Recover the amino acids of this structure.
């Protein structure tokens, strides 16, 4: 069969991650610094809520936009936090689901999407797949928001600016001042901000400012995967100020023909999750962050991460792939920067693993520095 695959498949490049995974298959009990998911399990109380929902028969489709009680709870939270009265809300299948629906609803071929580099992998591939054009804004070496550069990159074709704070892969949390300045630029040019806040609860040196607090034309995407360790439950939500309700309406329409709804019993458990206190997890991650950062800082060039569970470290010699290959040979699994960036100078560490493994990994990386 010839040409069975659509041309768009050629626009997606998974090679960076595949290469690491291929090498990983040969490893015995590795220090796995590669996985972007919490190492703890879903809290027992939330598991019980999901089991209860299944037993009580919440096993069918929910409304496309989500369980009405969950939507109400999200609306209350958004209203309280962002002062958006009557926000438009959609429950999604993870933030990944929210991103796909958002891009399908918003991006026309040729539209430009401004993305600070390094970036979460999905943005680039989804934008490319839809015929959009990524405009990467280099944020090296400090990974702060280069507001001037972003302002200069805005053209008539700019559809949105993507913001991800705390950031995957750098762990950087943007300051309130940076956020306010970006909001001002976006307002002046009347550009939508897509704010991926999946790690908003995992902020270790103060709270994380949402741009939605400073700019109404924000499409907010948040998730349950990371704060409650439920990556397999596939839950997230999208919310906008009422003035942008049509974005949520169109995303909901597309959800009808794609995901249909987020998993129903887990939506019930998510209602309880929103009241669940994760302070202990946040404290544990802060400790892990300190363990990793203090272990590497005198041997490597790295910005102290303030959120999420990643550090983005400069590879000795400035070339990540050979360093990553060497680390993997020494049983430490890390990801080269070119998976998250147009450059390949850094590598990403996920420190969502046991303290023992962090110590072991730090020791090996120090020897390789
Ligand atoms: N955004 C960012 C920045 C992420 O790191 C991830 C997961 N790695 C996602 C979105 C997607 O998460 P999920 O679909 O599990 O909610």
């Amino acid at each position: 069969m010839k040409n069975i695959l659509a041309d768009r498949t050629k626009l997606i490049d998974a090679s960076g991650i595949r290469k690491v995974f291929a090498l990983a298959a040969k490893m015995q009990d590795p220090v796995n610094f590669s996985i972007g998911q919490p190492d703890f399990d879903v809290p027992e109380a939330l598991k019980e809520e999901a089991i209860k929902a299944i037993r009580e028969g919440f096993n069918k489709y929910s409304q496309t936009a989500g369980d009405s009680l969950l939507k109400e709870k999200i609306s209350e939270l958004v209203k309280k936090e962002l002062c958006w009265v009557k926000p438009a809300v959609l429950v999604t299948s993870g933030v990944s689901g929210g991103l796909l629906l958002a891009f399908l609803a918003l991006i026309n071929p040729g539209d430009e999407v401004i993305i600070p580099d390094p970036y979460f992998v999905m943005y680039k591939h989804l934008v490319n797949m839809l015929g959009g054009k990524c405009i990467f804004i280099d944020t090296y070496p400090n990974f702060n928001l280069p507001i001037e550069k972003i302002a200069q990159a805005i053209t008539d074709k700019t559809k949105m600016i993507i913001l991800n704070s705390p950031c995957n892969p750098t762990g950087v949390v943007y300051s309130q001042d940076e956020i306010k300045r970006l909001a001002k630029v976006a307002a002046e040019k009347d550009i939508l901000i897509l704010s991926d806040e999946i790690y908003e609860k995992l902020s270790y040196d103060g709270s994380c400012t949402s741009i939605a607090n400073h700019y109404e034309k924000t499409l907010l995407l948040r998730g349950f995967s990371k704060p409650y360790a439920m990556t397999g439950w596939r839950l997230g939500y999208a919310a906008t100020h009422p003035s942008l309700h049509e974005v949520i309406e169109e995303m909901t329409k597309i959800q009808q023909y794609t995901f249909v709804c987020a998993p129903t019993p887990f939506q019930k458990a998510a209602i309880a999750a929103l009241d669940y206190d994760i302070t202990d997890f946040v404290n544990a991650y802060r400790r892990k962050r300190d363990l990793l950062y203090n272990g590497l800082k005198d041997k490597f060039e790295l910005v102290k991460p303030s959120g999420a569970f990643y550090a983005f470290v400069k590879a000795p010699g400035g070339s990540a792939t050979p360093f990553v290959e060497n680390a993997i040979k020494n049983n430490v699994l890390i990801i080269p920067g070119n998976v998250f960036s147009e450059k390949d100078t850094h590598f990403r560490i996920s420190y969502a693993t046991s303290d023992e493994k962090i110590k072991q990994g730090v020791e090996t990386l120090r020897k390789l520095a």
About this structure: The two ends are 49 Å apart (CA to CA). The first helix runs from residue 15 to 24.
